[in-house]
């Protein structure tokens, strides 16, 4: 009796905790509310199954616990019942999988008008790059990386000259414009993670990964690293500032391009080699 | 089906292989230390696994102290925290759970349950344990080498695992990989034994479809492990080469702390594929023995045959097979080709169907049963709740797009602890209470057992259920200190402190259990040979604990399946598997 009540309380308590928990996802800041809806569907279906199974079990314990003279029923199997339960489960699974795959299709289909930007991870800081006036980013390679060229841009690529390079600062994005976030790492795995964006992806040295999103509200958001990257993993932070387009352009005007930054660097290098 | 499990009229088929003489120990050393008796090897495996498991328990306390009260304990820094999580995870998954279910329960139960005298290759079986012990010692030694154990996380993802930004880069990672290689060699020797013993050494009348589900679970899990561990083996060897010889299997060109490294051309994602090709089946290598054992616990203690035995067997086999085509669901945000997501989400969610069937059949076994709320039964009930909970949250993480926000958060930590930490350990504990009388001839203390159950079950639930919500909030895993972030309310710190206190309490309850194990060994109530009035063969041995060779002069002959409980018209509520069919013959009961 007591056991049955405790089992039932576990089920009821879990549901109540879910309803009244102050810990819930952060208000969304991108177009990925579809993901939140899919999670909600999953919560409903799994919640009903969880409660039903535990409540049934608690009832069995209450109703059929051992008493003097009780004999268990002899019932090896029930094909019909087993098939119905399997079919019911398959329907429930499909009801979660179908919207999941539908939204995943959207997730992996980048709209043609998305602006490409780049985030680069390294132990333990973030750098950002925005395409310049030509709207295209120049090529990069790990082998070009030096103190003067921390993101490893190709100096000979004309598309890279007007790229805006932001080393360990803040990333600014205009609200309402789709962006394709290209992700790159120079040392170990990292993961560009902003909880409010819902979308995230690992950054893998040796390749470029990506995800896309459209910021839907302005604000300042914390960037965290979500893939273990060594001792200072938890301290690898930055901020993303989503702002109105006009403010964004004002900010963009003040940023230095790669050519401006590396112009000095080139002079320095020449000076050094000339001095020897 | 040709073979109806409880059809008592079928002829008794001959055993496939005739009896062979056993190796007989001649001294104390060969009887108790370098023993070739599977039962002694089982106990050696179990004690070693428990010993290293206690290290993992202490590590979990240290982690929880840091998470619950960040900054309070100056002796835990970020590096050590990463070393703790790595060692805790690796020990629990491989050196404790895998070793205990297969090396411990497998060795003890397979020969007894199928009516064999021993494993078919006793000498190799003995070697298996000693190589395992060596693997454990190499692993434990990393606590004492310069730089300490590796802090790469139990997944050991390169390039991080072998670069200097990660603690334990000097010796820790090398010894970890060496230890894994040793473990796999040791396991392979034991694993071949379990498979061949089940296939070749079953006694007369013990058809495959008469085997208890415990044997089915361990048997299937072992076959899976034999297929999955080689992937980890090659990955470990390749990473060792990358670290020691400067090869670049997993290492692309990279810059570490401003220095250009000599690596180039390798793929970090290749390692993840190899790791999870092992790692996902590994989840079921732990789960399937638990599924099997818990089926038997529920059946014995509810005095009822397991509901839908044949479906249960096929579900075990189906889960085992499917688990080899779902590995990349651990890699949805790894940067692999995004189209993979469609395939792996579909296969992953399909696994939910045979798994759900198992859950239904467990609770349907309780329906109209005669439920004895013994300690093993309580643990079985605790298993069902935690497994259902953890299995359902798996549907979140398996459904690719839902995984995107949740991956690498505390939600994942809560999920896998519930489903492959708490749930299998509930079964391990229930199984120890269940088979301890056979192993020692004495019962474990019931009052201490119930105390142990309630504190462990409710405590573990209170640790891991709320933890999902910290992850839903967005708190990442593997952070020694979540620090300040706008999206984390201060109440989260209170919840973390609560979880940490529960972790200390649950850990304390395990000390009570260890006391019970020791005390009952000397003072426990004598159990007799079959205290639970169970049908399967291990309870029908002539001696308890069973002697060398298990069965005395004559091997048992099996006439029926392992689930003849509460058969109408029978004089008692159970009929042992080796009882001839002279007593009631069921007319027309076959489906």
TrEMBL record, chain A:
<keyword id="KW-0472">Membrane</keyword>
<dbReference type="InterPro" id="IPR001505">
    <property type="entry name" value="Copper_CuA"/>
</dbReference>
<feature type="transmembrane region" description="Helical">
    <location>
        <begin position="83"/>
        <end position="104"/>
    </location>
</feature>
<keyword id="KW-0479">Metal-binding</keyword>
<dbReference type="InterPro" id="IPR036257">
    <property type="entry name" value="Cyt_c_oxidase_su2_TM_sf"/>
</dbReference>
<keyword id="KW-0813">Transport</keyword>
<dbReference type="GO" id="GO:0004129">
    <property type="term" value="F:cytochrome-c oxidase activity"/>
</dbReference>
<dbReference type="GO" id="GO:0016020">
    <property type="term" value="C:membrane"/>
</dbReference>
<dbReference type="InterPro" id="IPR008972">
    <property type="entry name" value="Cupredoxin"/>
</dbReference>
<keyword id="KW-0249">Electron transport</keyword>
<feature type="domain" description="Cytochrome oxidase subunit II copper A binding">
    <location>
        <begin position="112"/>
        <end position="254"/>
    </location>
</feature>
<keyword id="KW-1133">Transmembrane helix</keyword>
<feature type="transmembrane region" description="Helical">
    <location>
        <begin position="41"/>
        <end position="62"/>
    </location>
</feature>
<dbReference type="Pfam" id="PF00116">
    <property type="entry name" value="COX2"/>
</dbReference>
<keyword id="KW-1278">Translocase</keyword>
<dbReference type="GO" id="GO:0005507">
    <property type="term" value="F:copper ion binding"/>
</dbReference>
<comment type="similarity">
    <text>Belongs to the cytochrome c oxidase subunit 2 family.</text>
</comment>
<protein>
    <recommendedName>
        <fullName>cytochrome-c oxidase</fullName>
        <ecNumber>7.1.1.9</ecNumber>
    </recommendedName>
</protein>
<keyword id="KW-0186">Copper</keyword>
<dbReference type="InterPro" id="IPR002429">
    <property type="entry name" value="CcO_II-like_C"/>
</dbReference>
<dbReference type="InterPro" id="IPR045187">
    <property type="entry name" value="CcO_II"/>
</dbReference>
<dbReference type="GO" id="GO:0042773">
    <property type="term" value="P:ATP synthesis coupled electron transport"/>
</dbReference>
UniProtKB/TrEMBL annotation, chain B:
<keyword id="KW-0249">Electron transport</keyword>
<dbReference type="InterPro" id="IPR023616">
    <property type="entry name" value="Cyt_c_oxase-like_su1_dom"/>
</dbReference>
<dbReference type="GO" id="GO:0015990">
    <property type="term" value="P:electron transport coupled proton transport"/>
</dbReference>
<comment type="similarity">
    <text>Belongs to the heme-copper respiratory oxidase family.</text>
</comment>
<feature type="transmembrane region" description="Helical">
    <location>
        <begin position="283"/>
        <end position="300"/>
    </location>
</feature>
<feature type="transmembrane region" description="Helical">
    <location>
        <begin position="40"/>
        <end position="62"/>
    </location>
</feature>
<protein>
    <submittedName>
        <fullName>Cytochrome C oxidase</fullName>
    </submittedName>
</protein>
<keyword id="KW-0812">Transmembrane</keyword>
<feature type="transmembrane region" description="Helical">
    <location>
        <begin position="453"/>
        <end position="475"/>
    </location>
</feature>
<feature type="domain" description="Cytochrome oxidase subunit I profile">
    <location>
        <begin position="23"/>
        <end position="559"/>
    </location>
</feature>
<feature type="transmembrane region" description="Helical">
    <location>
        <begin position="82"/>
        <end position="110"/>
    </location>
</feature>
<dbReference type="GO" id="GO:0022904">
    <property type="term" value="P:respiratory electron transport chain"/>
</dbReference>
<feature type="transmembrane region" description="Helical">
    <location>
        <begin position="171"/>
        <end position="192"/>
    </location>
</feature>
<keyword id="KW-1133">Transmembrane helix</keyword>
<dbReference type="InterPro" id="IPR023615">
    <property type="entry name" value="Cyt_c_Oxase_su1_BS"/>
</dbReference>
<dbReference type="InterPro" id="IPR036927">
    <property type="entry name" value="Cyt_c_oxase-like_su1_sf"/>
</dbReference>
<keyword id="KW-0349">Heme</keyword>
<keyword id="KW-0408">Iron</keyword>
<feature type="transmembrane region" description="Helical">
    <location>
        <begin position="410"/>
        <end position="433"/>
    </location>
</feature>
<feature type="transmembrane region" description="Helical">
    <location>
        <begin position="312"/>
        <end position="330"/>
    </location>
</feature>
<keyword id="KW-0813">Transport</keyword>
<dbReference type="GO" id="GO:0020037">
    <property type="term" value="F:heme binding"/>
</dbReference>
